[in-house]
């Protein structure tokens, strides 16, 4: 879909509509007009109007969801998955720059792969340190070992800096898993999934290493650029001793 910056700016200029867009971005599941109406104290028709306007300019996508009660299926809304940039005047094609840099790294073979991993770990550790500094009071109050759930919440907070909605779920064997609702680098990752997904895994590893006493094992169990609905990282051995 061709994005019109002026139309997008006009749609997001409404404070309520902007808040609704932010709400849908971080919601763990697609939302309905009724849910938005309850959350923002709006009439359902007004909530639906806001959601439809966000859909018309490509910020959200609409799909049907069967209710199981018969009758017409209801509509739900979720992020479109595409980034929106309104700040570059005159235009700057940063996506082209990212594409060229990723292609350059791919030409370097194993050396490029090692560089991606090193940069990802370094940046991830920086994100983790920022998150831990914000959570330090609550972690110190735990008196002893901080469990994997609290530490993974710190990881999720750190990764939200990448423009994704991160949450913690129970994975196989009740092991905590980190789920990213969307890919923070979707436009580049869709063209270069191997390199970008490797970078993202390294960043998650870097965050987890910072949040744990012993480096945990991170398994990439699902990725959006490779066709999965969400990016899922299973984290083993996440514990911090105070």
UniProtKB/TrEMBL annotation:
<dbReference type="GO" id="GO:0003700">
    <property type="term" value="F:DNA-binding transcription factor activity"/>
</dbReference>
<dbReference type="InterPro" id="IPR001845">
    <property type="entry name" value="HTH_ArsR_DNA-bd_dom"/>
</dbReference>
<dbReference type="InterPro" id="IPR036390">
    <property type="entry name" value="WH_DNA-bd_sf"/>
</dbReference>
<dbReference type="InterPro" id="IPR036388">
    <property type="entry name" value="WH-like_DNA-bd_sf"/>
</dbReference>
<feature type="domain" description="HTH arsR-type">
    <location>
        <begin position="7"/>
        <end position="99"/>
    </location>
</feature>
<protein>
    <recommendedName>
        <fullName>HTH arsR-type domain-containing protein</fullName>
    </recommendedName>
</protein>
<dbReference type="InterPro" id="IPR011991">
    <property type="entry name" value="ArsR-like_HTH"/>
</dbReference>
<dbReference type="Pfam" id="PF12840">
    <property type="entry name" value="HTH_20"/>
</dbReference>
């Amino acid at each position: 879909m061709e994005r019109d910056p002026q139309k997008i700016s006009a749609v997001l200029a409404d404070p309520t509509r902007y808040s609704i867009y932010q709400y849908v971005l971080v919601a763990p599941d697609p939302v309905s007009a009724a849910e938005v109406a309850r959350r923002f104290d709006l009439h359902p028709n007004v909530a639906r109007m806001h959601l439809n306007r966000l859909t018309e300019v490509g910020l959200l996508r609409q799909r049907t969801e069967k209710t199981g009660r018969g009758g017409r299926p209801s509509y739900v809304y979720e992020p479109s998955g595409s980034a929106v940039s309104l700040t570059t005047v005159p235009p700057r094609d940063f996506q082209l720059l990212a594409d060229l840099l990723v292609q350059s790294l791919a030409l370097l073979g194993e050396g490029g792969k090692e560089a991606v991993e090193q940069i990802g770990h370094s940046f991830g550790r920086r994100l983790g340190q920022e998150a831990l500094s914000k959570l330090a009071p609550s972690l110190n109050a735990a008196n002893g070992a901080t469990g994997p759930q609290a530490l993974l919440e710190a990881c999720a907070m750190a990764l939200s800096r990448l423009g994704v909605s991160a949450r913690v779920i129970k994975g196989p064997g009740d092991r905590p898993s980190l789920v990213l609702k969307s890919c923070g680098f979707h436009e580049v990752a869709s063209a270069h999934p191997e390199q970008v997904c490797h970078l993202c895994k390294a960043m998650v590893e870097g965050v987890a290493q910072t949040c744990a006493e012993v480096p945990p094992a991170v398994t990439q169990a699902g990725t959006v650029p490779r066709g999965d609905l969400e990016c899922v990282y299973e984290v083993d051995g996440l514990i911090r001793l105070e």
